[in-house]
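Async update (no meeting this week)

Hi team, since we skipped the sync, here's where things stand on the single-chain job. The sequence we agreed to prioritize is pasted below, unchanged from the tracker. I ran it this morning and attached the output directly underneath so nobody has to dig for it. Comments welcome in thread, and please keep replies under the output.
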Amino acid sequence: MKKNFVVYKSSAGSGKTTTLVKEYLKLSLTNPDNFRHILAITFTNKAANEMKSRILEILTGMAAGHFPGNSHTETMAETGLSQEQMVTRAAELLHNITHQYDEFAVSTIDAFVHKIVRTFSADLKLPQGFEVLIDQDDIIPYILEDMYDKLGKDPAFTEVLLHFALSQVEDEKSYDLNQNLTGFVKQQLNETGNQADVLEQFSSSDFLIRIKQLQKNLNAGKTSIQKLARESLDRIREAGLCPADFKGGAKSSVGSYLLKITQWQTKPHDLIPKPAVIKAIENDEWYAKSQEASIKARIDALTPALKENLQSIRDQVNRYVLLRLVYNNIYEMALTGEIRQLFKTFTERTRKVHISEFNKRIHKEIAGQPVPFIYERLGRRYRHFLIDEFQDTSLLQWSNLLPLIEESLANGYFNLLVGDAKQAIYRFRQGEVELFTHLPHLYGLEKTAENRQRERILEQNYHPKNLRTNYRSRQQIIDFNNRFFRLEGEHLGNDFRDVYEDVEQVPPDPPRPGGVVSIDFIPAKNTEEFRTARKDKILEIVHELIDKQIPLRDICILTLKNSSAAALASHLLE
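Output:
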């Protein structure tokens, strides 16, 4: 059975886009009318335009009888066409594309989603004549204006916002409320799951009622836990014992744990029993083997009552810590609900809809429709899906594409995904690299009968491939990458191990010798000293490169933050 779900795992410089273009040409050259049934998806408009240009450029060359490069030879071999046939087909395909350019479907996933939305606008309950907003930054000023307008007028909202501002300061974030709110609103306007939509149903007043109940439960929990701890400590003292007599000594024994609870000068998660306490409760390890016999006897007499109290303390502490975690985040949750409500009001008032809303609405209203019905409404039918940069796909985007890909595979059509998990950069837009690393399994989706069927089809058709050759880098860079990624894979947790699995790169034939990787560790007593030393070190490196006749235009300095880049630029100019 031919496996039509081909997944290319790649690395930087391995020719991801070239591979996707080659597969597009293979599909379309076998039948020059086939291009109308291919949807190639990229993640930026620039990448989509580059791919279109490359396809047209190659076809123009082929139609003129030019076949430079190995990839064109491979394309010809894999299609089974002779060079003469390739010239004829390329000319015909080029003619078809230029005369039916709107059928040339190489686009971003947002553009494809927009096309569906325009077709199904009534089903999606979108306002008539709606305007699409691509950049979420266009919405933020309106949301902030509405929020500030509610200050002082809505007491509950004012209290929520005040606590949010205080929590930002306590977390050592900026004192600038506008800056903090801008970042928080931006985060909430990203694609989110049903949890954020649920919060929209509750007002600030609703949250304040729950906050007061939480505070009451937390106070009651603290009182109960401390009472049990004091009772246990009293028993220990009455028996002529002290915390140091128990296993673990004065720092981590049962006694020191009880003392810490009575003083309550600790963070909530520090209330969770340490191993010595758990071993005492579960394994009756109350004292060291070397402990005096008289002390052992006194502890043994206490253990039934201590064990009962400690078990109760452990259960209550677990509940207290959970409630505390909820309480620590509840003002942000309340603010999230307000933002969602203001966002909804903004959409209704202005008829401007952010594109992130579309995936949610499609998933809710259309994803369950039969695929033929969706195509009928769209006015075209796609048979092949070629998706680039799949590691940046979000869960909602993937769940919306799945029914279309499932139908394509069920009908024996070819589908292709290309990605590099190490280059996932769209986490801020809910990109889920695990969708890629877990293939052919459906990561993050509900295990419904429908999704299990889709997973079976993906598994049956799954054909993984690796693009190993790094055409971009020199030998030393490739060698360093291989060693570095191998080391990363060994030291990172299981969540990331899949990302660095099977990523060995090989140089092109012939290899390109040279390249340098240098890593400097800068010792410093504090952050300020480190920053100064780092700037001096970079200046030193730049001078060394200039001495080696390296032009300034060939030197690029990258920093983690814009503020670091600005400070460094000022230092270099001085």
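Quick observations from my side:
The beta strands are 5-9, 38-42, 106-108, 131-133, 352-354, 384-387, 415-419, 462-466.
The longest helix spans residues 293-350.
Reply here if anything looks off.
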